[in-house]
Amino acid sequence: MAxxxxxxxxxxxxxxxxxxxxxxxxxxRAAIDPETVxxxxxRMCAGDRFPPVQVYSDGTDHWLSDGFHRVKAAIExxxxxxxxxxxxxxxxxxFWMSLGANKTHGLPRSNADKERAVKAALRxxxxxxxxxxxxxxxxxxxxxxxxxxxxEATAQLAxxxxxxxxxxxxxxxxxxxxxxxxxxxxPAVPNPDDIPLDLPGAPADxxxxxxxxxxxxxxxxxxxxxxxxxxxxxxxxxHEMQALVLAVMKVRSTVLKAVEAKDSLYTxxxxxxxxxxxGNAIRQLKAAMPHAACPYCRAAGCKACHxxxxxxxxxxxxxxxxLKS
Length: 325
Hints:
Blueprint: E1 11-16, E2 20-21, H1 34-45, E3 53-57, E4 62-66, H2 68-76, E5 81-88, H3 91-98, H4 111-124, H5 130-137, H6 141-153, E6 162-164, E7 170-172, E8 219-220, E9 226-227, H7 229-236, H8 238-260, H9 271-288, E10 292-293, E11 310-311, H10 313-318, H11 321-324
Parallel strand pairs: 2-4, 3-5
Antiparallel strand pairs: 1-5, 3-4, 6-7, 8-9, 10-11
Helix pairs in contact: 1-2, 4-6, 5-6, 8-9
């Protein structure tokens, strides 16, 4: 029997406004700007079209990660639905992706917005390097280092020698510059952000300082199985594939709208072929996205999962039911 083709990921749909959760702490800004909401509402009433908002669905709730001003403007304009790209994911995933929202679009972020995003990123992913957090939030590395030092100095962030690099590996930075057996630290200590590391910090919710540092992370796959080691690392990086899918979808939408508007800059583009090429790229990215621990080898590594310990959604759908249970 042929494998069932998974639904598009993300799904573009007109989502009822009352189905979108705004109370999950996924608002990355320090405050909503009422003037921007009013401006957006007036433009919506005039017929202007806005990019779809970004929503993460866990099967029960829809958590907004990008588009708070647009959603509030749609409510003010009397709309009942809003176009949304609905991702498969959790409130935590929506929160993490929200910290990188608006770095290239929308209402420019204030310094307070950037500070809030950086501090939240540090509290929820303390094991990530300053460089990784800077790239995700959209600030310079020195800004992240400044806030990390400030949070550690006031005990709002636990000091940890473990740092994660962009390649997913971690290292105990307390050992950097020490001579084996001597215990003496070298005066020339390398920048830990330039060193490949291995255990990213826990994606716990942002918490007040009185509750202490985040607890150890429990990583699960998309079907709820706890995973560890290299398999857990793959699921920690799943958002990278999601971002690429979103990027291709945005390129497709932008180009096709330009062609439809008869923009002379896009005259040589064949819309049907371009849409097909983008669709193929999206399908390949979705197929490469981690979905579940391999049911054939129990994440140990086998031919079915190419030794990785995890499989994509197509392979999961095609796996025997008794193995998945």
